[in-house]
Amino acid sequence: MPGRDGTMTFLQIACIGLNRIICYVGRAATWMALALMIVIIFDVVSRRFFVLGSTKLQELEWHLHTVLFIFCLGYAFLANAHVRIDLFRSRISNRLQSWIELVGCLCFVIPYCGILVFNGIGFAVESYVSNEVSSAGTGLSDRWIIKSALTIGLGMLMLAGISVALRQFLILFGPAEAEAAIAQSLHRDAGRLADETDAPGH
Asked: Residue 159's closest CA among 94, 87, 110?
């Protein structure tokens, strides 16, 4: 049916597009690990040899760690890098796995992230308007930046949930070539992380 084929094609394009955005953000965020390493080394060396202590450096460390973690959540979800209960997963069929993924995304991941993003926007805006700073006297200013990063990262996880839901829907109801095209695109965009894991539903 032309209408059904058009819908499936649109869902496939949307899924691949979301994958590319999420993978790009996730891979870019991995550079935070290098920045975090440099800041930690500088902090340790300055404390050990120059007896210098900086609250700003310590807060910057956990800010960078937060960005690294939260921005890679969606990326890891797409590549199926999150921990799963293999004791049960290995005993069920691929089709049942896809149903569980689809229901889990629609009933839990997407709504939960949506609530967090909705409230996170309010927290970030309130922080910006009030010019919130660190509770430590010599800490970092502009606390709204890290609160915005948390909201954006959870938004990326929500988009990943939508992408995974679309992928599972296409696996269950779409043509076989759609599943193959999405898998090929994901392996290309996610890089080695996707190569070392199996996509949900496989």
From this structure: 110
